[in-house]
Structures are given as structure tokens and as C-alpha cells.
From TrEMBL:
InterPro entries: TRIC_channel. Pfam families: TRIC. Belongs to the TMEM38 family. This is Uncharacterized protein. The lineage of its organism: Eukaryota, Fungi, Fungi incertae sedis, Mucoromycota, Mucoromycotina. Keywords: Ion channel, Ion transport, Membrane, Potassium, Potassium channel, Potassium transport, Transmembrane, Transmembrane helix, Transport. It is a multi-pass membrane protein. It is found in: Endomembrane system. It comes from Phascolomyces articulosus. The chain crosses the membrane at residues 57-80, 92-113.
């Protein structure tokens, strides 16, 4: 039963990761998960700006969304002395740049997304895509990047967990530190360092789980079955996506709590 479930999970996670829109005329292949992630990042950024979206410059907004999208993996790469992944991918700039342009060049695309995200479970669908992509960053840009680093190696468990966790939530850390989701940027101590966010906790648990599940010695300590790389990544995607989806509900509950006093004041 466990083997069957794991195999099905591997097929789903990696099947979604491989799904893409083919554009033969242009010779393009656009991965669905990357497109959904780009839309989610830009929509979240545009929503956070509220009315101040008209005050930001094009370069400022693009840089903010790039940090939000790839800040985690880039932070891990810098720590390990590796080239930034976004510099090795023309596709990244095409997908995220085009999505950013659509979001801020006219009001209609954002209004359409507002309608789309109002549909039940739609936000969770985009968030699940975000979770699968982040898991790939945790695994490839964090844990495996440490294992393949000649100066570190496969036995550096702490480095794996740190770089893996940063790959999953580093973008949010930089966004919070420099207030990138506002029109005026300023540096201050990241609030996430005082109170860990759901993203940080989920990313940390994902890095810890993957490292433990693929390391025989750690499996013995945590009493876990040893998993292959694909199996461990698939279950890690469940852990991270589950945490991020939970965050969407928490955020919604908090918003409703804030709206209730305002409605009561209006009634009075």
C-alpha cells in the first residue's frame, strides 16, 4: 500500500513538473508550474501594493518580483559559491518578465485574476504549484547543491538543511527585510527572524525531511524508511505544499477577523 501510494505520488509530482505548453512556431516550451508560479507571485505583489502600485517604477517592480520568485535559490547559490540559477535560464526571464508586464501594463489582467482567485480552491491550486516548485529548489538548489559541493560534501547535514530551508523561503526573507512589497523600500530586521512564518517552518521541515529520508544514518535516528531521491522529493512536495496551503487558510481567517470589527462599526 505504501509503495503504491508513493509511486502514484511520484507520478503526480513529476508528471506535473514535466507538463508544459508547447509553442512549435516559436520553439518554446513553457512549463505549467512555472507559469502558475509567475502568476501567483505577480498577483500577490500587486495585491500587497494596493493603491501604491502606480508609484513604483518598472525596474523596481521587476526586481521585487524576481527576488520574490528566486531569492531563496539565489541566496543558497551565493552561500555555496555557485552561479545563480536565474542567470542560466532565459526561460525564467521570459515567463516572469512577461507575466509582470501583463500584470502592471493594464488593469484588466489583475481584475481577471481577482475573479479567478475568488473561485473556491483556485488559490490553493496555485499554491500547490508553488509548493512543488519550491520543493525542487529546496532539493536541487539546497540539499543536493551542498552534497555536490566539493568543499562541503554529502555528510554536511546542517549545511543541507540550512541551504535547503533558505532555498524554500529566502525570497520571503529578503522581501520582509527590505519591505519589497511596498512602494518605498527600507531595510530593517526581518520580522521573520523574530517570529518564524509558516513558509519558513514548512521550508525547514521539508529540507529536514528530505535530508533525513535520503540519509541512512539519519533514517535510523528518526525511525524513517530510506527513500530514493524521487520518492523523497515527492513526499517533500506534499510537506511543503501542505504547509503553504495551510497558510492560505490562516491568512484568510485573519482577514475575516479584521473585517468583522469594521463591519460592526458600520452597523453602529
Amino acid at each position: 500500500m505504501e509503495t503504491t501510494l508513493t509511486n502514484q505520488l511520484v507520478d503526480i509530482v513529476f508528471g506535473l513538473s514535466d507538463t508544459a505548453i508547447e509553442v512549435p512556431a516559436l520553439g518554446l516550451r513553457i512549463p505549467i508550474l512555472e507559469l502558475l508560479h509567475a502568476i501567483l507571485i505577480n498577483y500577490t505583489y500587486r495585491t500587497a501594493l494596493k493603491q501604491s502600485h502606480a508609484e513604483i517604477g518598472w525596474a523596481q517592480g521587476l526586481l521585487a518580483t524576481v527576488v520574490m520568485s528566486a531569492g531563496g535559490g539565489s541566496t543558497s547559490a551565493l552561500l555555496l559559491g555557485n552561479p545563480l540559477g536565474i542567470l542560466k535560464s532565459n526561460r525564467f526571464w521570459g515567463i516572469y518578465g512577461a507575466t509582470y508586464w501583463l500584470m502592471f501594463s493594464n488593469p484588466y489582467f489583475y481584475q481577471f485574476l481577482q475573479y479567478l482567485f475568488a473561485i473556491p480552491m483556485m488559490e490553493q491550486l496555485f499554491t500547490a504549484a508553488d509548493g512543488i516548485l519550491r520543493t525542487s529548489a529546496v532539493v536541487n538548489g539546497g540539499v543536493l547543491a551542498v552534497a555536490n559541493n566539493k568543499d562541503l560534501g554529502d555528510d554536511k547535514w546542517v549545511a543541507k538543511i540550512i541551504c535547503g530551508a533558505l532555498s524554500g523561503c529566502g525570497g520571503g526573507l529578503w522581501t520582509d527585510a527590505f519591505r519589497l512589497s511596498s512602494a518605498q523600500w527600507s531595510f530593517s530586521t526581518p520580522r521573520l527572524l523574530r517570529t518564524a512564518s509558516v513558509d519558513m517552518k514548512a521550508s525547514f521541515m521539508t529540507a529536514l525531511f528530505y535530508t533525513a529520508a535520503t540519509t541512512p544514518a539519519l533514517c535510523e535516528w528518526f525511525d524513517l524508511p530510506i527513500l530514493g531521491p524521487k520518492e523523497a522529493q515527492a513526499w517533500s512536495a506534499v510537506v511543503l505544499s501542505g504547509g503553504l496551503i495551510y497558510r492560505t487558510y490562516v491568512t484568510r481567517w485573519q482577514q475575516k477577523k479584521l473585517e468583522l470589527p469594521e463591519e460592526e462599526k458600520k452597523d453602529q
